[in-house]
Amino acid sequence: MSPDRQTRCFSIAGMRIEVTAPFSLPGMILEERLGPFSGEPRPAAGVVRIDWRESSEPLSPEGELVYDPGAIWRMFRTKRAWCAEISYADRTQDLPREEIRSLLHANEAWDDLVLRERRSGAGWHSLLSLGAGELAVRTAILGTDGLLFHASAVDDNGRGIVFSGRSGAGKSTQLDLWREREGVVAMTDDRVAVRCRAGEGATCYGTPWGGYPGCSRNHAAPLRAIVMLEQASENAIERLSLPTAAARLACRAFLPYWDRALMRRAFGNLEELVRGVPVYLLRCRAEPEAVELVRSVL
């Protein structure tokens, strides 16, 4: 290994994330989001290795385009596995090669990855702590019985609660209502990792990818309930049936639409989750009474 390269370990969603990179490189800017997640879990649910490499040439994706969600990234199938092109530029047309910010090469299991980036200009910063790192973790977690959701989460005195729903349904509002209660830890406002294993129960985790830096904590809690949110004029809560719960959660999960095998694994994880953790529909106003309503079913 080159003397200027180091390997650092991060603990994200119970997984050991090993990143090899020249961490002294100006523009890496990792501490703001990844710094609180430094260290390693014991025991680790899985190990993911990411090798960061600088490219001196313009980046060009390899393989056949198989999935394009319309913004930030596209997935290509290569002879060996996968290549994700990641850029935060507006992509109304195919990007010129010099505008592609990074390429993330992954094996089939998504536990051995290479992130290639080309530095450009004084304002350059690595996408390792943003879209590239998130895509790597949210896919690798599938192999450890986990899923990543667009959701917020709190630890209520040892009871993990995940709040999800459509944009604007009140995920951040719930966080504000709960965070001032005694014994409550606000874990994240935007990205929640969940793992459920038969015989072991379910756990929810804060991740580095909150809506704003500093909104997420490296914290885990036993998951006691998932609450789907809807705004309403009156407060009410009801438990959802397994099929309804699975359908609603699938819409809020980050799923690997580019690969059938990974999708099967994701839905297997989802089925285990809804069988092991109650899912509720909370219709509510943005008021403190909603907290006690949720607590009444825990």
Offer a concise description of the structure.
Helices cover 19% and strands 35% of the residues.
Can you give a write-up of this model?
β5 (73-77) and β6 form a beta hairpin. With 298 residues, this protein is an alpha+beta fold. Helices cover 19% and strands 35% of the residues. The chain folds into two domains: 6-143, no CATH class; 146-295, Rossmann fold, CATH 3.40.50. The protein has six helices and 16 strands. The strands form two sheets. An eight-stranded mixed sheet has the order 1-2-3-8-7-6-5-4, covered by helices on one side.
Q: Which sheet architecture does the biggest sheet show?
A: 8 strands, mixed
Proportion of residues in β-strands: 25-35%
Helix content: 10-25%
* Widest sheet: strand ordering: 1-2-3-8-7-6-5-4
Which whole number gives the mean pLDDT?
Answer: 91
Protein traits:
2 domains, five-stranded mixed beta barrel, 298 residues, alpha+beta, 6 helices, Rossmann fold, eight-stranded mixed sheet
List the helices and strands and how they pair.
Blueprint: E1 6-12, E2 15-21, H1 31-34, E3 47-54, E4 64-67, E5 73-77, E6 82-86, E7 102-106, E8 112-117, H2 131-140, E9 146-156, E10 159-164, H3 171-179, E11 184-188, E12 191-197, E13 201-206, E14 220-231, E15 236-239, H4 242-252, H5 260-276, E16 279-284, H6 289-295
Parallel strand pairs: 2-3, 3-8, 10-14, 14-16
Antiparallel strand pairs: 1-2, 4-5, 5-6, 6-7, 7-8, 9-10, 9-11, 9-12, 12-13, 13-14, 15-16
